[in-house]
Design goal:
Blueprint (H helix, E strand, L loop, with lengths): L3 H10 L3 H10 L18 H9 L6 H8 L4 H17 L2 H12 L8 H16 L5 H7 L4 H10 L1 H5 L4 H9 L6 H17 L1 H11 L5 H7 L5 H9 L6
């Protein structure tokens, strides 16, 4: 079985100080920023994905140990392993992987960590199950738990199931964080790709409260004349 120490050594061998410096700026790790204190090894996603394929036998204790790392890429790697584990597991294993994910949300603490994993673990697991946990997460004080709530619904969107995306987006309309405005707008854009009328009903109903960033993301795929109407707020409310 793959062991956390062995994997940690392999990850450190891939590290690049120059890349780490760039990533620490990109992911806003300075004082008062959303990623404050995060530490990077300097490894991009493709090498992480390639290495993850070599460790398909990693068990949940190994994955949880890696997820506890101070290094951003090691936590990302743990999530890639967890996604592989979940995909290959039986129902008991999938429940265990899902439980591990939700018990470690404090470690899933940047937007890329959430975005790569939440649809494939939380969203997939809840496809045929009650989804009240998403409303609990959407009400969390944790920015990352709130982001998990909306991004997890991407899995449902891909199944042409939009109700939870709309519901969670409504709950997050007054969120103060720009990362949440982007996440809500992104999911509304994905809804709009599949059902533009539904997305427009949401935008028209909530436009007084909809943050400008969320609006821009949501209408990105609209035809230019219609996008201009929304940006100028000159549409007629149905």
């Amino acid at each position: 079985m793959s062991q956390a120490k062995e994997i940690s050594a392999q990850l450190r061998a891939l590290a690049s100080p120059d890349t780490a410096s760039i990533l620490q700026g990109f992911f806003k790790t300075g004082p008062g920023q959303y990623g404050e204190g995060d530490v990077f090894l300097g490894i991009k996603i493709p090498p992480l994905r390639a290495l993850a394929k070599q460790h398909r036998d990693a068990d949940l204790p190994t994955i949880e140990s890696l997820l506890a790392s101070k290094y951003h890429e090691q936590r990302m790697f743990a999530l890639l392993l967890l996604m592989q584990f979940y995909q290959a597991a039986d129902e008991t294993g999938r429940q265990a992987a899902y439980d591990l994910y939700l018990s470690n949300t404090a470690r899933i603490n940047n937007w890329d960590l959430v975005d790569v994993s939440a649809p494939h673990i939380v969203g997939h697991h809840l496809e045929q199950r009650p989804r009240a946990i998403l409303r609990q997460l959407a009400q969390s004080d944790s920015l990352w738990e709130r982001r998990i709530a909306i991004i997890a619904t991407f899995h449902f969107i891909r199944q042409n199931d939009f109700a939870d995306t709309i519901r969670i987006a409504e709950m997050l309309l007054d969120d103060k964080h720009d990362l949440m405005h982007k996440a809500v707008g992104w999911m509304l854009r994905e809804v709009g790709k599949r059902d533009q009328k539904l997305a427009e009903r949401f935008l028209q109903q909530h436009y007084p409260r909809l943050p400008r960033t969320a609006l821009r993301y949501a209408i990105e795929r609209f035809d230019p004349p219609l996008r201009k109407q929304y940006l100028k707020r000159t549409f007629s409310i149905a």
